[in-house]
Structure formats: structure tokens, C-alpha cells
């Protein structure tokens, strides 16, 4: 192997390593960018006022939707029942589930009170990635808040959120399956509609 080949091989190896690090860093950066915006919203004194509740929720919805893949989350939460639904039913499910998920996530993060968010680790395997973080309260209590992402259209999108080891998607999948098995699909939609209206109510 001549000197030129050695140099080119070394450069290629270094570029591969650098590229991998940049790709890895971008996953956490995608999550951090969204979380920073959410924290900014919930920390805003004006936004905290009762009369601005709807404005705050709309701002949170906008921030969260930049990285949450509601279609993927709905499909995974429906599990084996997803393929049985018509295109119109799937569209309504995604809309209803979007409201439910936004409320679940926003409800957790709205209690933020200057806690420290620490990003611990990220794992990337092909088109899938995990970003692990923890929230440390003023009383030094901690809880884990992890994100599962997949690459879509050149971007990393969240398809699940794991809070204290409990997957939101897995939790909903169990609930949805139980309702469908015992009461039918129609009852599930009815419950989701009622819940959606409760969430939207001022």
C-alpha cells in the first residue's frame, strides 16, 4: 500500500467518523430544539396567566407538532386494528389521537418550574434512534423522559415518548385493544371524541 493510499484511507475513515458524530448529534439537537421551545413557552409569565391558557396550549401544540409524527404514533397505538380501518377512519383517528397526545405530553411538561433537563445518551440504529433525558426538580427528585424517533423525509420524528419507563404508545395500545375487544371500535372512537372535546373545552 503506497503513501497516497494510506492518506486517502485515513481521510476517508476520519470523514466517516465525523459524519457519524454529526448525525448522532443532530438527533439530540432535534429533540432539544423542541424541548427548549416548550420550556420557553411554559416559563413565560404572561403565558402562565389563566386567561392565556388557550394561547399557551396553541403555542405548545405548534412546538410539539414540529417533531411529533402523529400518524405513526396512532398507527402503532392501534396495533393490529389499524389495517382494518378505512382511510376516512384512519384520518379521524389521527386527528383525535393528536389532541390526546398533545394533552398527555403538554400536561407533563406544563408543570415545569425551572427544573434542569439533562440529556444523557442517544442511540442510533439505521433509521431509528433513542434520546434519553432526565428532569431534575428543585428538590432533586428525578424522572426520566425519553424519546423514540425514526428518520422520515430527511428528518428525525418522534413516534413514542417514554416517561419513567412507561411508553405512551404501548400504554394507549393496551387501552385501545381492550376497548375494541370488549366494546367494539365504535366505542373507542366515541371515547376519543368525548376526551377530545373535554381537552378543547376552555
From TrEMBL:
Pfam families: MlaC. InterPro entries: MlaC/ttg2D, Tgt2/MlaC_sf. Residues 1-25 form the signal peptide. The keyword Signal applies. The keyword Signal applies. Keywords: Signal. This is Toluene tolerance family protein. It comes from Geotalea uraniireducens (strain Rf4).
Amino acid at each position: 500500500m503506497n503513501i497516497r493510499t494510506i492518506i486517502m484511507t485515513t481521510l476517508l475513515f476520519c470523514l466517516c467518523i465525523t459524519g457519524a458524530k454529526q448525525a448522532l448529534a443532530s438527533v439530540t439537537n432535534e429533540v432539544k430544539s423542541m424541548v427548549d421551545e416548550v420550556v420557553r413557552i411554559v416559563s413565560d409569565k404572561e403565558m402562565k396567566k389563566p386567561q392565556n391558557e388557550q394561547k399557551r396550549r396553541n403555542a405548545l401544540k405548534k412546538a410539539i407538532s414540529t417533531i411529533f409524527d402523529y400518524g405513526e404514533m396512532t398507527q402503532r397505538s392501534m396495533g393490529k386494528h389499524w389495517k382494518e380501518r378505512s382511510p376516512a377512519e384512519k384520518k379521524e383517528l389521527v386527528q383525535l389521537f393528536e389532541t390526546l397526545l398533545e394533552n398527555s405530553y403538554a400536561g407533563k411538561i406544563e408543570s415545569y418550574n425551572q427544573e434542569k433537563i439533562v440529556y444523557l445518551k442517544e442511540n442510533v440504529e439505521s433509521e431509528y434512534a433513542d434520546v434519553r433525558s432526565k428532569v431534575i426538580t428543585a428538590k432533586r427528585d428525578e424522572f426520566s423522559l425519553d424519546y423514540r424517533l425514526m428518520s422520515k423525509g430527511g428528518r428525525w420524528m418522534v413516534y413514542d415518548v417514554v416517561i419513567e419507563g412507561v411508553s405512551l404508545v404501548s400504554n394507549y395500545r393496551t387501552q385501545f385493544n381492550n376497548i375494541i375487544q370488549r366494546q367494539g371500535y365504535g366505542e373507542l372512537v366515541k371515547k376519543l371524541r368525548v376526551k377530545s372535546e373535554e381537552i378543547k373545552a376552555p
